Write the structure tokens for this entry.
Amino acid sequence: MTQATEEGRLSGDEVLRVEHMTMRFGGLIAINDLSFSARRGEITALIGPNGAGKTTVFNCVTGFYKPTMGRILMRRSGGAEFNLERMSDFEINRDARVSRTFQNIRLFTGLTVLENLLVAQHNALMKSSGFTVLGLLGWRPYKDAAKEAVEKARYWLEMINLVHRADDPAGDLPYGEQRRLEIARAMCTGPELLCLDEPAAGLNPRESLELNTLLRAIREKHDVSLLLIEHDMSVVMQISDHVVVLEYGAKISDGTPRHVQNDPKVIAAYLGVEDDEVEEVLEEIEEVAEEATHGHQGGQPTGDAR
Amino acid sequence: MTVISQPPRRPSDDRLKRALREALLAGLISLGMFVLYVGLQTTQDIRNQLVLNQRWGLLAILVALAVVGRFLIVYLLGPWFAARKAAKAARAVGAEAPPQNFLRRNVGWIALLALMIFPMAMLWLVGPQKSLKWVDNYGVQILIYVMLAWGLNIVVGLAGLLDLGYVAFYAVGAYSYALLSLYFGLSFWTLLPLAGILAAFWGIILGFPVLRLRGDYLAVVTLAFGEIIRLVLINWTDVTRGTFGVTGVPKASIFGIWSFDFNAANSFGKLFDPELRRPTLNSAYKIFLFYVILAMCAITAMVTIRLRNMPIGRAWEALREDEIACRSLGINTVTTKLTAFSIGAMFGGFAGAFFAARQGFISPESFTFHESAIILAVVVLGGMGSLFGIAVAAVVMIGGTEALRELHFLKTLFGPEFTPELYRMLIFGLAMVIVMVLKPRGLVSVRNPTAFLHERKAVSSAFTKEGHG
């Protein structure tokens, strides 16, 4: 499944294309010649066993790491294209409009919920305050822009059902609400590609259901494509349009959720077997499935790893 | 099982026993600590021989003080502390209600009003001669530190960048004014902004190399920067006159209209009284300086408050909380750090220029690390980020050490050769320990949010971070 690399430009429906990306840390190859693309308006999920290099891919896409080799192209809705591997992390957010959340939540805990969302609108507010100078003198348009920023924050608070906690410190929120706030904060930067690093980690089933609704709503109401790393298969299978599976830094499967689910390589990767044992495992799975359909409810759910 | 069968013991008995035990322990510890320091004293006699004096009486007094003090603390204050702790635990951690009281809400304006009246009141109460001490030693001196601490607060309190070399910018401001006015004859009011700009420029120069540093490393490099500036001032004798310092720094004038020089044609004194004596003019000058530094402090506070409510101020605080999250939100952390350094340095430069005009003499000795440490201590004691807390801390720390000079009654207690000023650092340290034990996040430990949707609730220090350096 190699991507077309002859021409530099992305086709119209692609929003992100990673080409032959390799990331080495000393002698360790975290990502090896990885290529995939994400389409505009879709939810692309990046899955794989622990240590497969998913978060490293995220860090490369969002500029926190510089890939050793390869190219990362991002196309904005206006048609402008950016070489993300050449940009620094804050430029990727500011100019290429790629926004992200973190696996271990990184909120500004000592700032209030509202302030967290206002910090995310930093660049827009900086411009309207005349890079602080005009704002200091009490320039009228800045005051209007500040009010607008609060309204935008209120909109996102309504989206994540946190309006009543707006004036509480972000560190005071329960875990699930902190996750939602981090997504809202990333959306306040006005992204076109939103990268979510395990948004459902640590959520209970009800909360992860709410998360699904939130992510769908974000995609429907805003011109934004999603790239997400997830371990919670219920989230991945329900909401993603396209799944990329990594193992040991390389892509082993790419396609629709259904296609990936039935890919023997993926199953083997999740069960942790050697390549030549894949056939055996598949047979075993079929046996177990047959037993289950025959009414013996005692079989272990081997198909759904983790 | 056996607990039930025992007769019920009164809690006060328990307390008495515990108090006695702890008092004994305190006595033993103090005996161990003081026996060599206080019990034995070595002096040189006339033939340069070492003589050992034994001071068992003094040792006994100190140990007895420790025993009685510890006993009283445990026996009498113990229950009170426990009750206070329980009440604190019962109160919810998190958002605290804003003060509703009129006095507490408008405390800033009331303080400003009191300060406006202060020099005139002193002049009226104790006359021009004695008012000097109150207006200059207390008023101006404290306000200089308030301004310096507010400037450093931007770097340390808001942006969370630990700067141990802040006094360098103070020095840059002071020398800018002193040298430029002496060599080029420029006036105070031209050089005041220039000194601020030059200090801000040096703030950026310091900022660049330390951008990638955090925590202890940042602290060490800023400390070194402060020392470099001081060593340059000492060794560049052609320009700065080295350790001799710069003398005869011109006084500030009232916007160039009236001068405070006694012999000048436009002397301020001659305006009212042709026969005016020198000391009276001098105290008028100090009162004028008091109002100048008060205005400078007010501007510093206003700018800081405004900046906090602007995107740049919020970005500073976000930087203190989490730098990586800042970058993921498109905030350019390089320029954000540099603006914090340069704006903080600018206020230091203003204060420096003012300091030079007030003293009339500056030397590298005024800009040692000790000075940086005191400014930082004021910021930390006041509560990082809180302008009001810092102002109170400056009054307590600077005014307090100054007030030690007044404690002449201590001479009757400890003997005529006892000089309370020598113990100022000891008391400074003691005050810091006490405040840090009782209020570990400084006098004002809550953070006032910059924006609110429903109501403004102070953020408890349990959630704010100090920054990574």
